[in-house]
Amino acid sequence: MADIEDAGEPAVPDAGAATEPVVPYAGAATEPTVPYAGEATEPAAGEATEPVVPCADPLGEPFLRARFSLPSLPAGFLRRQRLAGHLDQALGTPLTLLNGPAGAGKTLLAADWAAGLRRPVAWLTTEAADRRPGVFWSYVLQALRASGVPLSPAVGTPADPGAVDRRLLAALAAELSEQTRPAVLVLDEYDRLPDPETAGQLEFVLHHAGPGLRLVLVGRTEPLLPLHRYRAAGELTEIRASELAFTPDEAALLLASHGLDLPDRAVRALVDRTRGWAAGLRLFALAARESDDPERYLKEFEAGSSTIADFLLAEVLKGQTEETQDLLLRVSVLERFRPELADALTLRSDAGPLLAGLCRANAFVERLGHTWYRLHPLFAEILRAHLRERLPGLEPELHRRAAAWFHRSGMLGETLGHGAAAGDWDLAASALVADLAIGRFFTGLHADDLAALFSRMGPEPATPAADLVRAARDLAGRETDQGLARLRRAGEPPGGGSDDAAARMSRALLEALAARLTGCPARGEEAAAEADATRPELPGRLLDAHPELTALQLTHLGSARLWAGRVEDAHAALTAAAGSPAATSTALPRKEALAHLALLDYLNGWPGRAERKALAAVSEAERAGLPQRAGSGLDRLVLAAVAVERHELDRARSLLDEAARHGCDPRDPVPTAGRALVAARLALADGAVRDAAETVRPPLSTVEPSPWAVGHEALVTAARHLAEGRPGEAAEGLRAVPADQPACVAEAAAIQLASGHAGAAADLLDGIRADGRTGPAVHVRTTLVRAGAAAEAGDEAAARALVRRALLDARRERLRRPFLDAGAWLGPLLAEAPLRELAEGWLAPGPPGRDRRGLPEPSPPPLAAVELSGRERDVLERLARMMSTEEIAADLFVSLNTVKTHLKSVYRKLAVNRRGDAVRRAHDLGLL
Fold first, then answer.
1. CB of 513 within 8 A of CB of 548?
2. Does the pLDDT of residue 305 top 70, yes or no?
3. Is 836 helix (H, G, I), strand (E, B) or coil?
4. 144: nearest Cα among 218, 207, 225, 63
5. Which residues belong to any copy of the HTH luxR-type domain (predicted)?
């Protein structure tokens, strides 16, 4: 009694005074104002006797005042307004749940919220002893009285530790229902009371108290209450683990409160690793502030040997049964798992109920849906470290079991990852081949990840599947010679069945690639025949799941045929590849097929078609999000070649550089020869004939020579001889130009004419077949050669008519280069009024021409060659002012889709696919 008297509070009520105890708000000292159990209480003379409210529980033990006090907030505590605001809704609903794992910040959130309320809050931290209903309700009543809730002594208190009189609960509910202001009762760590009897009693009081009680339950598990009813009625406030998680901004504030100033990327990495778990962030902050370099500490932080590990092992793992601990340790090697997979690792059959229980208990096991689960990443990291200590050597075997399970379930990605982690490369390689997924090495999307995974595979095992994977890895990594050697060693597997068929199909794909890289179409035809013969033996579901396999085979075959000059056959294969199903995995082969078709069009003299296909290839890559260096860069090379034909030399140089950044694999003969061709033509346009002759001959070793590559090399060499005053050698070198390459033959005729051999030039032109294969670029050159021959023969009328025809054909394609290469004879004709009018607007008004030594004359800046509508010009002008699409739409008072439509049209007309390129090209053409 001494401390009560010292506090100045009476031990018993004064005569005539109210009989309710007077207690300060929650969080302050909560001295009871009722007598201790067993203390004699004599009533004053004339007073009616009231039932005495004891100050001890039914066991006779005094109430522990600390259980009624708000927990103190630690230094550096961060008040999160979004959560406090959400928790304010508890005042408007009968029931509130604060549910989350250990260390999620539930208790501190509730304590901070309660301390900030302008009303008393009854706080009770439950304990295991409260599982007995009599003990629990005696503490609840004491918490309510201690907070100032005016409960009359008539409510009483339980006398039996193991039971509570229903009349007491009814009296409590009745008095609470009459409160003018609802009582707020917070039961912290309520998950310690799994007793359904107590839960039913609590539901009874909550229901019958009506608006007089606001119950807040704080715990790790859901209470045994009919939550669905409260949810359906809108009478439940819930704050769960996902909402309790710290956001990056909140984490930055928390770290700052501990004196840590980390960059945003480091904070985000920490939040990702901890999933915003409050205790993890705080424990990290406490440890990191002792480090000289907190950011480095974060990178090198090992959760398995830290205070976080101590926390989780003590709070989560050690409280579980041996079976549950064993389950958690074993599934820690998995990113995600199902009960059946967990059973495969434990060799038991109890994972289903154990995982469901762990998930309900918020024991850092998260349900992903469709019976899939995952561990909190920090918990998994700590469990793996603990696994290595408790069960050393078991981890590889667990990965092997997981790989086998995933393989049986048809989940290739996890199969490969766990097979690699187990060091079982035969299993991983066999799974990749059996799934027909070897083409993923060459799709550009996850090729680097696959190559990195199998880069750890050593010389063992020496199985056919492993050799095929090694060959694919080496070929994808530009180790051509080594890859081809491995491909030769990869024999077909013995026996029969779909696995053998999958190996043969995988080998056929690699053989097609080998045919492309070695310039051997015969090898490609054999590979195609093998693929056609094997396809019926494979399950349709596998073929449907991997459309990239056929798309890659066709692209490789078409490239090999193109190299060999088999134009029609190449066009057929490449067109089929470009028309492959529009899946993400086929984006790269479709892009490559379009680029090869663009090159075919360019070689046949169709620059406009070539440009459109090349731009489509670029767009295909951007839509699919392919890495920058995915593919050969052939699309940009074709665009550069077209730019040279149009005498847009700066654009050609830019595209040539861009092609180097986007591929140009030196092993691949078609793009390698294409790059040499474009670079040589650009050098010729610049007057650097020696450089052109050295550039046009790339170091390639192929089974067959390429007719078009040979032809263009001969043309550039002859142009050098002519420019250096050796017309005889120039004419002699033209003998190497293949007769079945019309574009090359047309240029060879121009060089013969410039060398003074008009008859030889005419003979060459007569040999060009007049079919639909040759395009306007060939027609323009042949027409100009005939015009030049007519001019030399003194037939100016014929020359004038032929030049007119050439101008008409060239204007549609904006072909300037043939006129610049034609020679000095062209100048006087272009100066005449009728022809000058045809040249205006796209070709220089004066004859830039080239003299008979082939040296270029300075040409004026290019004039406008593009016609834009008024609205397209409006959009282009705002594009040049760095306005966004949304800003352009707002400024022009049009919809966003309208602006996008105009942008597409502008890009198409300017032959570009980016904003910056559109602005630069518009400046070059005088549109801005």
1. no
2. no
3. helix
4. 63
5. 861-926
Q: What is the pLDDT of residues 95-126, one digit of tens each?
A: 999 999 888 999 999 999 999 998 889 999 99
User: How many helices (H) and strands (E) in the chain?
Assistant: 47, 7
pLDDT higher than threshold 60 for residue 21:
no
Q: What is each CA distance from 521 to 313, 544, 549, 560, 868, in whole angstroms?
A: 64, 27, 18, 5, 45
What one-letter code names the amino acid at 331?
V
Instruction: Give the CA radius of gyration of the chain.
Output: 41
Domain end marker among 196, 214, 244: 244
As beta bridge partners, residue 166 has: none
Determine the angle formed by the axes of helices 896-910 and 915-924, rounding to 10 degrees: 50
CA–CA gap between residue 877 and residue 498 (Å, rounded): 60
Identify the domain boundary among 225, 244, 263.
244
pLDDT in tens, 656-683: 988 888 765 678 999 999 999 999 999 9
CATH number assigned to the domain comprising residue 882: 1.10.10.10
Residue 497, in any domain of the structure: no
d(CA 803, CA 194) in angstroms, rounded, equals 97
- Tell me the pLDDT band of 520, cut-offs 50, 70 and 90: very high
**Range list of H helices, 289-441:** 294-300, 307-312, 322-331, 339-346, 351-360, 377-390, 395-408, 412-422, 425-434
Q: pLDDT, tens digit, for every residue of 833-887?
A: 889 888 887 885 444 444 333 333 333 333 334 567 878 888 888 888 777 888 7
Question: For strand 213-219 and strand 183-188, is the pairing parallel, antiparallel, or unpaired?
Answer: parallel
Span of 618-622, 714-718, 766-770 with lowest mean pLDDT: 766-770
Sheet holding 236-239, edge to edge: 121-125, 183-188, 213-219, 95-99, 236-239
Residue 128 belongs to a domain: yes
Q: Which residue has the higher pLDDT, 488 or 248?
A: 248
Listed in sequence order, the residues at least 6 apart from 527 whose beta carbon sits closer than 8 Å to its beta carbon are 508, 509, 511, 512, 514, 515, 553, 556, 557
Query: 214 has which bridge partners?
Result: 184
Name residue 292's amino acid: D
Mean pLDDT of the chain: 85
Per the listing, tokens 């229902």 go with: 177
Residues composing the chain: 928
Instruction: Report pLDDT for 860.
Output: 35
DSSP-derived 3-state class of residue 337: strand
What is the Cα–Cα distance from 461 to 422, expressed in whole angstroms? Answer: 14
What are the beta bridge partners of residue 337? 373
What range defines the domain where residue 877 resides? 870-924
Domain with residue 226: its CATH number is 3.40.50.300
- Number of compact structural domains in the chain: 2
pLDDT exceeds 50 at position 478: yes
Alpha-carbon distance 376 to 298, whole Å? 18
Percent of the chain with pLDDT over 70: 90
Q: What residue type is 853 in one-letter code?
A: R
Q: Report helix, strand or coil for 95.
A: strand
Domain contains 99: yes
Is the residue at 138 inside a domain? Answer: yes
Contacts with 414 (C-beta within 8 Å, 6 or more apart), sequence order? 335, 402, 403, 406
